[in-house]
Amino acid sequence: MIETDTRGFAIQVDDLDADWLLSLIEDSETQSRIAERRKLRYAAQWCRLHLVESHDDEEDAPIGGHGTPPVAVFAAEPLGAALQTTTHAARQLMSDAWNLRHRLPMVWAGVESLNVPAWRARRIAQATAHLTQEQAALVDRELAHRAATCGTVLIDRTIAQVIAATDPEAPQADEELSKENWEVRIFHGPHTGPGRWTGTSILEITGDTHDLTRIHDQLTRSADLGAAIHDLATSSGGGRPARTKLIVHADLSALSDETIGTGSVERLGPVSMARIKDWVDHSHVTVLPVLRMDRCDAVDRHDPPTWMREHVILRDQHCVFPWCHTDARSCDLDHITPYLPLDKGGPPGQTNPGNLAPTCRRHHRNKTRGIWSYTREPDGTYTWTSPHGRRYAVTPCGTSGMVEPCASDERPRPT
Ligand SMILES: [Zn+2]
Fold first, then answer.
1. Which has the closest alpha carbon to 248: 271, 282, 221?
2. How far is the CA of 43 from the centre of ligand 1 (A)?
3. Ligand 1 ion: Cβ-proximal residues, 5 Å cutoff
4. Are strands 262-265 and 248-249 parallel, antiparallel or unpaired?
5. How many angstroms does the Cα of residue 319 sit away from the middle of ligand 1?
6. Residue 363 CA, ligand 1 centroid: distance in Å
7. Burial bucket for residue 152 (CB in 10 Å: 0-12, 13-18, 19+)
8. Does the structure show a pLDDT above 80 at 199?
């Protein structure tokens, strides 16, 4: 194994003794902090390049916290594409960089001097994002000399102390706000990790401390956790069967022999036929006919019929914007060439599978505002063009990096 040191010299790693290896590990940590600091610096500069007079978008929260200069709502998309990550991740990077620069200058100074790793500073930035500028400044002062080592507990305790000192009524208001945010969320798919059975999921509950502690104790006291969870699941709901909607893709003829083959469940992945048979036997099942995926006929109306919507969802599977993973069933179906009503001169056949694509609400708004544009190629690949003239190709398998820059007269023109 060969590596290069900071001077560019080749190093045979297998030959290193412990002392030399530790020196190189320390150096690699420094290089890592430099790289992460560079990303935050670039993100802050990206914000600076996209300043606007005021934040005027009702659907999206401002990028920075209280007291930060307003930044254009859709500035995150080109940054996300350049970083080959989601818009959400890019937006979070911008938010953290902007809040560190404008609300947490002492913590930011620690990042600049490489004493504080960027990920720890970003954790403080996110934890203080909802505070006023004055409160954030107090947290900044309290944590500045401990930012290099502080964990979540110290951050949260410092924030609570600052809020209690500056706003005596806040704890009661927070209590009400907390109740409004109580929720139950379930995660499937990628959260289960590779190699784990598809039927494993993660349940996250945010609620009353006392009640949740009782549920936790009840489950963890049992010697058989699986049985305890099953008992809880079957004893709740007043005996009514659970209403869970799973969309299963399987060859029904294979259900007669559960020892062969696999099917798949949307958002979960491959599942054994034995498991599908078990679910089908104990559930209300609606069998949908197989869709002909080569069907391409059109209708003369704006909204697609059910078969066409299902066709496009199954074909593309997710939002077709670069690196967006939003499930196609949660997306809008966008007319790639905008729909023009027939009575206003529009041509017939505008609503057809070839002119429809799933786009999440945010990326749909990007397109309809003319900030990004895209086309669908004959092979089903989507080619997106950014406001900076960069092009990206998206297929059901994912996004490839930048394909090519385009000429300036081909760039989208925001409306
Ligand atoms: Zn999207």
1. 271
2. 21
3. 319, 321, 324, 326, 360, 363
4. antiparallel
5. 5
6. 5
7. exposed
8. no
Q: Is the pLDDT of residue 258 over 60?
A: no
Q: Which helix (H) or strand (E) holds 256?
A: none
pLDDT on residue 151:
85
Give 325 Cα–ligand 1 centroid separation in angstroms. 7
Q: Cα(320) to centroid of ligand 1, in Å?
A: 7
Query: Is it the case that residue 234 has pLDDT exceeding 90?
Result: no
Domain boundaries, the chain: 18-180, 248-281, 306-410
Q: Which residues of 50-65 are buried (b: 16+ CB within 10 A; e: fewer)?
A: beeeebeeeeeebbbb
Cβ contact 389:350 at 8 Å: no
CA of 315 to the centre of ligand 1 (A): 16
What's the confidence (pLDDT) of residue 373?
A: 96
Partner residues linked to 186 by β-bridges = 203
| Least-confidence region, from 39-48, 133-142, 221-230, 267-276 | 267-276
Output the six-digit token pair for 322.
């670069």
